[in-house]
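Field log, afternoon session.

UNIT: design team B
ACTIVITY: writing a sequence onto a fixed backbone
BACKBONE:
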């Protein structure tokens, strides 16, 4: 079972009308960029930040008020 198959029945069982993804479109020159989101994403900070030099990472985390333990893009 994949993630989408699991989420759709749960949404209906919880009283939702079914799965409704968020869709955004942007024109980039002669091209249309379309993004589709089926929910949110939370990553462990170490997944993204561990390979980065710590002395350079700290100012970036502070400037953008980011947590070193989790990232929600």
């Amino acid at each position: 079972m994949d993630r989408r198959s699991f989420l759709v029945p749960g949404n209906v069982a919880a009283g939702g009308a079914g799965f409704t993804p968020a869709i955004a479109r942007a024109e980039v020159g002669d091209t249309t960029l379309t993004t589709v989101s089926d929910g949110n994403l939370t990553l462990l900070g170490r997944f993204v930040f561990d390979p980065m030099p710590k002395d350079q990472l700290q100012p970036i985390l502070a400037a953008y008020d980011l947590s070193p333990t989790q990232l929600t893009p």
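LOG NOTE: The mean pLDDT is 81.
NEXT ACTIVITY: expression trials, pending approval
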